[in-house]
């Protein structure tokens, strides 16, 4: 059910994007640092959207890898502490 709802939402968003692109056929001037180019507004909007998605994806991936590294570091620390606890418990039993 969840995947159907997500698919419907994506289809509606895609249709809206096509409708917006069809309405925005005007040419706009884009000034780069070293050049200038005339683009259709719909292509410029699509390019900015894709760039935003890529930046968001890279940010999320960086956060995920950072959390994954921290989790593995903490797991190693816990396993070392468990070994230390077991050694201390064994020493107390011998005494």
Mean pLDDT: 89
Approximate strand percentage: 5-15%
Alpha-beta classification: mainly alpha
Low-pLDDT regions: none
Query: Major β-sheet, in short?
Result: 2 strands, antiparallel
Strand order in the largest sheet? 1-2
The end-to-end span amounts to 61 Å
Sequence of secondary-structure elements:
HEEH
Individual helix count: 2
Domains counted in the coordinates: how many?
A: 1
Helix content: over 70%
Shape: elongated
Number of strands: 2
Gyration radius (Cα, Å) is 27 Å
Describe the structure.
The protein is mostly helical and 95 residues long. It has one domain. The chain has 2 helices and 2 strands. It has helices spanning 2-23, 41-94; strands spanning 27-31, 36-40. It has a two-stranded antiparallel sheet with strand order 1-2. 0% of the residues are buried. Its main location: membrane. It is a single-pass membrane protein. Keywords: Cell inner membrane, Cell membrane, Membrane, Transmembrane, Transmembrane helix.
């Amino acid at each position: 059910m969840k995947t159907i709802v997500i698919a419907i939402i994506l289809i509606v968003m895609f249709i809206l994007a096509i409708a917006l692109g069809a309405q925005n056929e005007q040419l706009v001037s884009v000034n780069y640092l070293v050049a200038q180019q005339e683009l259709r507004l719909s292509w410029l909007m699509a390019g900015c959207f894709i760039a935003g998605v890529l930046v968001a994806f890279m940010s999320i991936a960086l956060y995920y890898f950072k959390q994954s590294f921290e989790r593995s570091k903490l797991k190693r620390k816990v396993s070392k502490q468990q070994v230390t606890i077991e050694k201390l418990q064994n020493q107390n039993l011998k005494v």
